[in-house]
From TrEMBL:
UniProt keyword annotation of Hydrolase present: no
PROSITE patterns the record matches: ABC_TRANSPORTER_1, ABC_TRANSPORTER_2
Alphabetical list of SUPFAM superfamilies matching this protein: P-loop containing nucleoside triphosphate hydrolases (SSF52540)
Gene Ontology MF terms: ATP binding
Family note: Belongs to the ABC transporter superfamily.
Protein name in the entry: ABC transporter ATP-binding protein
One Pfam family cited in the UniProt record for this chain: ABC_tran
Annotated organism of origin: Caproiciproducens faecalis
Keyword Membrane: no
SMART domains per the UniProt record, alphabetical: AAA (SM00382)
Domain ABC transporter residue range list: 1-217
Keywords, alphabetical: ATP-binding, Nucleotide-binding, Transport
Protein origin, superkingdom: Bacteria
Length: 219
């Protein structure tokens, strides 16, 4: 930034295994979003490697990065980022149509308990309902991993638990990798593995032998 160099991350080195449910915890500004955006091919690191199934995506050109984002990764954001002029079902279908091996959008709509709400626009849905649609949209592409940046940050406790449930179900039903960034250390107890980020570095990396159910999270 001008004269000042900000090192968003420094010497970060970790591996996430296929099918793992990982929570990344850390204070504001510690570098969590930067990690997620680099893993998802939204940001590109200035140095280092980002290996996905043995391939270094940090060396990809824009076209290959687009393909990577399209097929390998599903994103879930804090404020849902749904297309406002499309219905819930259309939002999910749009993502499905982009992917090579999508999951049936109507089946997902039923799974998120919104079969009756497919024709509603985002402005006609609650925050929790919008986030469920956003998760269904991310899952519809049938990606190898879901990257979620504060997915419960804008939700009340019971809706937040419902959202964590949905992410856990996806992880267990499809054996897909889920990575969640959160400020909420309670959510970390649901994960198989917890990464702690501090000042742009990995300050902790622990496994949970007995992850708790989303309902048991002390919010
Ligand atoms: N576009 C940018 N330009 C300059 N500095 C940035 C930019 N984006 C992030 N940073 C800096 O990089 C560091 C890491 O930011 P990052 O957003 O990854 O943190 P975070 O842990 O996700 O924070 P939060 O929990 O508040 O979202 C911070 O010091 C931040 O100020």
């Amino acid at each position: 930034m001008g004269e000042v160099t900000v090192h968003a991350l420094q010497g970060v080195d970790f591996t996430i295994g296929e099918g793992e449910f990982v929570v990344i915890l850390g204070p504001s500004g510690s570098g969590k979003s930067t990690i997620l955006n680099i893993a998802g091919g939204i940001d590109v690191p200035t140095a280092g490697q980002v290996l996905y199934r043995g391939q270094d995506i940090s060396g990809y050109n824009q076209k290959r990065l687009t393909n990577y984002r399209r097929n390998a990764v599903g994103f879930v954001f804090q404020f849902y980022n749904l297309m406002q002029n499309l219905t819930a079902l259309e939002n999910i279908t749009l993502a499905a149509e982009m992917a090579a091996h999508p999951i049936d959008p109507r089946k997902l709509l039923a799974q998120i308990d919104m079969a009756e709400r497919g024709g509603h626009f985002p402005s006609q849905l609650s925050g929790g309902q919008q986030q469920r649609v956003a998760i269904a949209r991310a899952i519809a592409k049938n990606p190898d991993m879901l990257l979620c940046d504060e997915p419960t940050g804008a939700l009340d406790v019971s809706t937040g638990i419902q959202v964590i449930h949905l992410l856990k179900d996806f992880n267990e039903t499809y054996r897909k990798t889920v990575v969640i960034i959160t400020h909420n250390s309670g959510i970390a107890e649901v994960a198989d593995r917890v990464l702690i980020v501090k000042d742009g570095r990995i300050a902790g990396d622990r496994s949970n032998a007995n992850p708790i159910a989303p309902e048991e999270v002390a919010w």
